[in-house]
Amino acid sequence: MASPDPVKTTSLIPERSYDTDSDRYLISDLCSELEEYLESSQVAEVYRAYLFGAQAHEGQKRVSGEPYIYHPIEVARIMCEMRMDYKSIIAALLHDVIEDTPTLKEQLAADFGDEVAELVDGVSKLTHLDFVSKAEEQAENFRKMMLAMVKDIRVIIIKLADRLHNMRTLDAMRPEKRRRIAHETMDIYAPIANRLGIYSMRHELLDLSIKNAYPMRYRALNNACKKVVGHRKEVFNTIKSAIKERLKAVDIEARVKHRRKNIHSIYSKMREKKVGFKELTDVYGVRILTNSVDDCYRVLGVMHNLYKPIPGKFKDYLAIPKANGYQSLHTSLFGPHGVPIEVQIRTKAMERFANSGIAAHWLYKKGQENSTETAQTRALEWLKGLLEMQQRAGSSLEFLENVKVDLFPDEIYVFTPKGNIMKLPRGATVVDFAYAVHTDIGNTCVAARIDHRMSPLSTRLLNGQLIEIITSKNSRPHPSWLHYVVTAKARTNIRHFLKSLQQNEAVSLGQRLLQQSLNQLMGKEYQPDEHQMRQVVEEYHLKDYDQLLAEIGLGNRTASLVAKALVDHQETVDEDVTQFDPSGKPLPIRGTEGMVVSYAKCCHPVPGDAIVAHFSQGRGLVVHRLNCKNLVDPQHDNRKQDVQWSEHVEGEFLAGLRIQVENQRGALARLAATIADMSSNIENVNQSEKDGLISTTDFIVTVRDRIHLARIIKKLRALPVVNKIWRN
Questions:
Q1: What range does the domain containing 681 cover?
Q2: What positions carry a catalytic annotation?
Q3: pLDDT at residue 559 above 50?
């Protein structure tokens, strides 16, 4: 996820009009602002970085035709407004030199130090690799940036500043490119700014995204908001004055600010609630800034006495902050003349944090602001989770998908049995909660008690519930969990476990298949040596011998060909070697092979049936009944594998039954009761045909073997309502 290419696609005319050079924000302006909080020696280093960058970008132009160096200066300006440290400012000025000029990372390290070089490299896109698709390239660039961000949070702050200036100056781009960049910003960068608590940047990124993605809608909403404020200006002034007077009367020192809701918030609410602009109740808002948390709650009481609160519209983010550290009291009131007012109440320190988020760590790092320490802790916890996600993700695209899921937490709050608060996205299930507590608890959970009542794993959680997870040492993640979990951590860990499990099972099956082929080829029990294994692994360009076995188990390689290759690489020739014996014993199926051996749903083989299997690439062996109509002629199927049931088969298997019954009240219940009495479960039931007197019903039931199935059929056939029964 990189910003637009600077030479070909970047920016253009900022929201402020720069018609003349005198209006342009220059390096002298930047240095003047930096002198307000940096030492003179540090400002001198920033100016030296500017000279370096200006020389590196000499001759490069933006799409608007202006010199390219104006863009890094503006990015540095945004960083300066956030009061970032001088090395961040230097990195902002140089953030494109590795990517867009011949400058090397080593040169930056020599001139400005390793810290600056690492920051610039973290922001730079990957330009030396070939990718299959644009999506893969974007995902890999995003993955690189996020890993650099884990090492140093300033990487993403520079990237956000870079994206913000590009969004401000997007007007010269082609419409389709503006839309693509705007959607990318809405999907990735604005949510990251939100996750880091940088609300001012998030709001501007989202407003600019809507402006560029939906220009006509943006203009219409912006004009409508201006009209509302214009028509109700006197009412708003009355409200503001009334609040100030009431606070003064109760001797509470506070600052009252009025605010208009952001365009993106209005647009999102209209889409979510499917309402028109006139039906919105919180276009206008008031923000009250106090000196302490106690004053915040006192102000809340004053406001509820002054104007009637709207039921269900109060949120306390002071007691329970958002995941990014945001704190405030939110309430909605009926103002004069029925004008609804949204009121936010917070301390001045919380206001500074809401504007700067994690960046406040650098501005207030001397110890006065405890909230910034909490914010930094939360951000680092999130980054730790990102690192775990990327380690377990199979690809850059999967990692990007998981991060996107993690970036949109419409939160709920639930409690552990010890009374600790857990934050989860809305729609989270018991499994999501279990993984949020600990990965091992998620991997072994079997059920939960929600408010002391037993509940299944798929139960969606609600605010304020008390959750107790029930685990079992023998339990493990099930593929079906992926259908309902919503958190990235749960999804990543489930996929990782299943992949590891499938890998182990594939290695085990591959070993059995290869050993069988070797024994048939050599005419005796045969074990290849290390030399043969190493030679074949190198010949197939694989990582190790286990990967070769897994390839066999998953059906990606043929065991007989691998066996032949192993024998060809033996160092000494065995005179007793015989040719391939086609009459070798079939592979025994035990029922414990796991995900690399599956049973065809078209014929539902069970122990005791005559069976045959074929390889499905990436899935392993698929077992069919020998008389299955969907089988290719076994004699002409090069994917065929001879199999037989082992003497000791474990587990339960699915079998299909089709039953014709008379249409009588309670007939289906009698069938179900009979199946249950025979120690079988009904996995699925479907009525396939029905006329006036007879109906045909398909059952999928669990059985241990063919004998168990025969007993169930015999018992069902004895029921008076059953006309005919046969295996489906």
A1: 653-727
A2: 99-100
A3: yes
